[in-house]
């Protein structure tokens, strides 16, 4: 039998939630753990975000590149608002996304999730093999067969989100984000709005949009409706540390506290299938060590997709054996990865405490890995 104190606490919480208590991520009576009390769908079995586990992702060669229309430079107005949870940019309905099955979705808005509560906390919602990125971008769409977003959000096939992950290293400032970031000071307080003019949304997304993960999930904020087709782009957006810190520290919520860590924790997969239109590959973080490497991007959706370029990571033989990764990251096309312990190799690559120089050799799909010399010190 439920203890009396617990029962009373739940009754009080339910009463307060019913009288307009605002949901939060980590504070107050309606924090993330208690969303289902006010928004029952938040406790469902098809929730988002999730951890994208590469060993469980299923390769689906029939998934074509997404066809994005109207995402380029548009000289009209883009209203931008601090809604107390994030910054949201309203998008024109002339922007649309058509998926490989022919479904067309119209753009509604884009917003961001970030960390920032400490220098060690990143804020993406989706993770890849447990790794969280610094920021996640969501471009929210609704199915064009419905008359409005409000109608579509109630339907089982109503919504789609194009998501992109952001990483930061020693990058120079991303000029495509300058206008957006410079106007954050205009919406410092919750409820404030401003207008951006002349945005190129495509330039604010990853350079290579051909490859993505796909699964069925939910909105990541209340009401958490389970009617969202997710498309998480495999490539990443690169921002400078200064730009990330500006986003993490510019906006205040309804309690006049800095909006930070506005991301939901990953949710159970519950036997859902996650697909991708590329073969399993090492974490993209390895590619950021190659200066000047550019994707040979193309948008011809009628051409067969090829797996993206991968990298072979070679550890110095001078290191003690217990520190030497046994995995090798090489392009395989339709072959399986040649690996013995790719997770160890991946962890090693992220460990900045290891001072050994690594050798990254870009290898094109279908080519034999060349013989690689030992690194020099």
From TrEMBL:
The EC number of this protein is 4.2.1.1
Per the entry, which co-factors are needed?
A: Zn(2+)
Record field: catalytic activity: hydrogencarbonate + H(+) = CO2 + H2O
Q: Does the keyword Chloroplast apply?
A: no
To which species is this protein native? Ovis ammon polii
What is the uppermost EC class here?
A: lyase
Which keywords has UniProt assigned to this entry? Answer: Disulfide bond, Glycoprotein, Lyase, Metal-binding, Secreted, Signal, Zinc
Xref: Gene3D superfamilies = Alpha carbonic anhydrase
Per the database record, which ranges form the Alpha-carbonic anhydrase domain?
Answer: 21-278
Purpose: Reversible hydration of carbon dioxide. Its role in saliva is unknown.
Q: GO molecular function terms here?
A: carbonate dehydratase activity; zinc ion binding
What residue range is the signal peptide? 1-17
Family to which the UniProt record says this protein belongs: Belongs to the alpha-carbonic anhydrase family.
Task: Give the superkingdom in one word.
Answer: Eukaryota
Write down the SUPFAM superfamilies for this protein, in alphabetical order: Carbonic anhydrase (SSF51069)
Entry-linked Pfam families: Carb_anhydrase
Gene Ontology CC entries for this record: extracellular space
Give the subcellular location: Secreted
Protein name in the entry: Carbonic anhydrase
């Amino acid at each position: 039998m439920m203890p009396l104190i617990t029962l009373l606490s739940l009754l009080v919480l339910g009463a307060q939630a019913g009288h307009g208590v605002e949901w939060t991520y980590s504070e107050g009576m309606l924090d993330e753990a208690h969303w289902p009390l006010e928004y029952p769908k938040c406790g469902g079995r098809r929730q988002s975000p999730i951890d994208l586990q590469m060993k469980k992702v299923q390769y689906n060669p029939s998934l074509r590149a997404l066809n994005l229309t109207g995402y380029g430079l548009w000289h009209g107005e883009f209203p931008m608002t601090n809604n107390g949870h994030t910054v949201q940019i309203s998008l024109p309905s002339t922007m649309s996304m058509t998926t490989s099955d022919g479904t067309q979705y119209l753009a509604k808005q884009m917003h961001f999730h970030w960390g920032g509560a400490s220098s060690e906390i990143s804020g993406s919602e989706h993770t890849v093999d447990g790794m969280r990125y610094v920021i996640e971008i969501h471009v929210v769409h609704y199915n064009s067969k419905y008359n409005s977003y409000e109608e579509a959000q109630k339907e089982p096939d109503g919504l789609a989100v194009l998501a992109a992950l952001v990483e930061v290293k020693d990058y120079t400032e991303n000029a495509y984000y300058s206008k957006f970031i410079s106007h954050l000071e205009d919406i410092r307080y919750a409820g404030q709005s401003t207008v951006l003019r002349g945005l190129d949304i495509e330039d604010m997304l990853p350079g290579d949009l051909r490859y993505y993960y796909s699964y069925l999930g939910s909105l990541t904020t209340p009401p958490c409706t389970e009617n969202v087709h997710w498309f998480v782009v495999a490539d990443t957006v690169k921002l400078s540390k200064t730009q990330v810190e500006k986003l993490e520290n510019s906006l205040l919520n309804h309690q006049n506290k800095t909006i930070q860590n506005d991301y939901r924790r990953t949710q159970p997969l519950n036997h859902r299938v996650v697909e991708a239109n590329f073969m399993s590959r090492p974490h993209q973080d390895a590619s950021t060590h190659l200066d000047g490497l550019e994707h040979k991007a193309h948008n011809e959706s009628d051409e067969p997709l090829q797996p993206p370029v991968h990298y072979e990571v070679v550890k110095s033989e001078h290191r003690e054996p217990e520190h030497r990764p046994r995995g090798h990251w090489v392009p395989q096309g339709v072959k399986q990865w040649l690996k013995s312990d790719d997770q160890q190799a991946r962890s090693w690559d992220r460990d900045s405490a290891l001072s050994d120089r690594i050798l990254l050799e870009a290898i094109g799909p279908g080519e034999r890995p060349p013989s690689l010399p030992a690194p020099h010190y």
